[in-house]
Fold these 2 entries.
Entry 1:
Amino acid sequence: MNGVLVLDKPVGVTSFRMVREVRRIAGIRQVGHTGTLDPIASGVLPLCLGRATKISRFIMAGHKVYEGTLHLGVSTDTYDAAGRETGRRPVPALSMDDLRRAAAALTGRLLQAPPPFSAVKHQGRPLYKLARKGIHVEKPPRRIEVFAFDILGADLPRVHFRVHCTKGTYVRSLAHEFGTALGCGAHLAALRRTRSGPFAEDAALPLEEARRAAEAGRLEELLVPTTAALDHIPAVEIDGGMALELREGRPVPLGRLRRALEAQDIQPAPGVPYVRLLAEPPAGAPPELVAVAAWPEPGESPGARVRTLKVWPRSDDGAPEALDRPPRALRKKP
């Protein structure tokens, strides 16, 4: 059983519990997540099953979209509603323009330090375990990008928002920084992930539906094939000769890939350092996924080679692994 199962995680359940449940109902050990959601959050949680676990890092690189609510005037140690209250301040009279200006200041390329209560490790131990003992460790900030921080409405002290960002962005940290900028503090009151890479919430399944499908022997029908799960990565068509060389493990000059990217005007996706290499198909046939490679870095030497990260062989019957019509989890509901 190989593919991606796109679930709708409910509030109050950990991502790891969702992984354990899917292992149990699918009857396989190879199940992994592509980026966790905090227990207070709900929404899109893609899980990789079987050989699809080998592409989890590519899915994890996809952009994320969240909708949520932050509460002004109350700060917590975890930056969300699950934490201990650390301060209260009066909320000033704020207009929608005030709120939008504060949000706009938190968009673009940013450096964001992990919050004190996070799974980021320090000397092999998660920060949240140290924080529970009163040990606060400041980790160096990481580069993220917030493409949009939209204020959807406000009923002060609550503010409703939507965030579109790269992986690794802590939305509760954005809520904390938002409140700090307004001078009253804030914490994240509720959060829902509405998109993760190519997967949208309208195609995410409740765990119970996956359980019923497994009992009926139909769980595999709900899985997104590995090739279709990579649609958020830019793609370029390569000739049959390059495809053969890559599959045989022969070095391919990076210049050949650069020329193909330029000729087809393929641009990198922000925060996604990969490119899919598709073999030119026969007339009327779908393209064939050959490999995922690192996106060429500016200034690489003329003698550099294409750095493949995952290569797909032709299937056992000799037919290519084609990118067919999107499966259920990638199709819009009517």
Entry 2:
Amino acid sequence: MKTLIYENSLKEEWDSFVSNAVNSHFFFKRDYLEYHSDRFSDFSLLIYNEKDKLVAIFPANLSGFTLFSHQGLTFGGFLIDENMGILDYLSLFDSLRTFLKKNQIKKMVYKCIPFIYYSINSQIEEYTLFKNGASLIARDLSATIDLTSSFSFKNRRRRGIKKSKKLGLIVSESQDYSNYWGLLSETLNEVYGVNPVHTLEEIKYLHSKFKNNIRLFICEDGEELLGGVVVYENINCVHIQYIAASTKGKRDGALDLIFNELIMNIFSEKQYFDFGISTEKSGMYLNEGLISQKEGFGARPVICSTYELNLD
């Protein structure tokens, strides 16, 4: 196999492969990866077979002598096509190890792509890491609804939805990221003492590049903003992040109404509705209140694993 380090001339080939991969996510496309290129030293790879056909790509960055897949993303790892079998994957991984050693890279930190982002059933990734002697260093816990299976809202969530509807609150899609980022920043600072990972300028830029994938939904009482969420929409899976509500929004069930609308109507045809992780400290701390809220909508645990592999 032949391995190439990504360069700008390969952008079209890279993005095309992302679109057709069985574990695709729009944030693997170059316009997303490169918005924070000033913070990460890109070391993304393209792997070709003996017939010079592109068979896998590997979004990654380099820090010192350690390769990460990718520090600027929630998860990473190999993107593959539907023809990749286990023996091919093992050979692919061997090729990666050989290439990294030749480039004096001593360690790899590999964040697995959760199964909910695969269009076909596959756990090929974690088996290969295990077989190569990788060590599990983190296991975060997300919460996901399988929209194709039976699920139900718990009483507390149903009461919140009923209350918000009775008060006449309205859920809609919005383009006003500036207004929402004000509420989001205020909420995060008040509760956690932090700012959003993306600045307002960054999220507006990313939305301009991925209008069909990055979407903002808000709840209002008249013209008063009560709450909102940012949706990352993929082919089979919808991921929720940047959740916030004002004091009044929390009291009046604004978020319950938003999630009800997204789950039962707007994204009801998707396979998975993912609320994101409820863990910190590499999975050792579980936010019990947060996971309980997500389970209240019928979500169930999905693990997100990170491995470390020494290459010496």
